[in-house]
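Entry 14. Ran structure prediction on the chain below.
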Amino acid sequence: MVGAGALVLAGGGVASAQSGNMSPSCQKLTATLSTLQSQLTAAASNPSKLKSAVSQVAAQMQAESASASPAVKAAVGTFLAQLQQAASGQVNIPALTTDAGNITKACTATSSVTAVPSGAPATGGGSTAGLQDAGLFGVGGAALLGGAGALALAWRRRGLTA
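Output, C-alpha cells:
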C-alpha cells in the first residue's frame, strides 16, 4: 500500500513538455503520462488492480511509442521497466520521475530536430530594395535646388549692396 502511494506521487506532473511541435506519438505519450496519476490512484488500494492498471498503461505506452524515434522508444522502455518494478513493490520514485522526464525530453529533442529548415533563406525585396517613394525623392531634390537658388540670390544681393 505504501509503495502504491509512492507510485501515484511519482506519476504526478511528469508530462510538462509543450505538445505544439511534437509528433502525434509523443503527444499521445505526453497525454498518457499526464493521466497516469489518476489511473493509478484508482488502483492504489488493491495490489492486483494496481498490477492490472500498470499492465494496461504499459501496453498503451508501447503502442503509442511504436512509431516514435528510437530515443523515445528507449526512454519509454526504461520508464516501463521502472513502472513494472514499482507495481511489484520495488518503488524507486527518483528513477520513475527521471525516466518520465526523459520521455518528454526525448520527445522535445525529436520535435526540435524535425523543424530544421532546408536550403538558403529567401533574400531581397526588403525595405531598402529599389526606390520606394519617387515623388518624395523629387520633392526633396526640388527643395534642395530651391534652397540653393535662394542662397545664391541672397549672396548676389549682398554682393551688389556691399
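The helical segments are 2-11, 24-43, 47-64, 70-87, 93-114, 134-161. Will compare against last week's run tomorrow.
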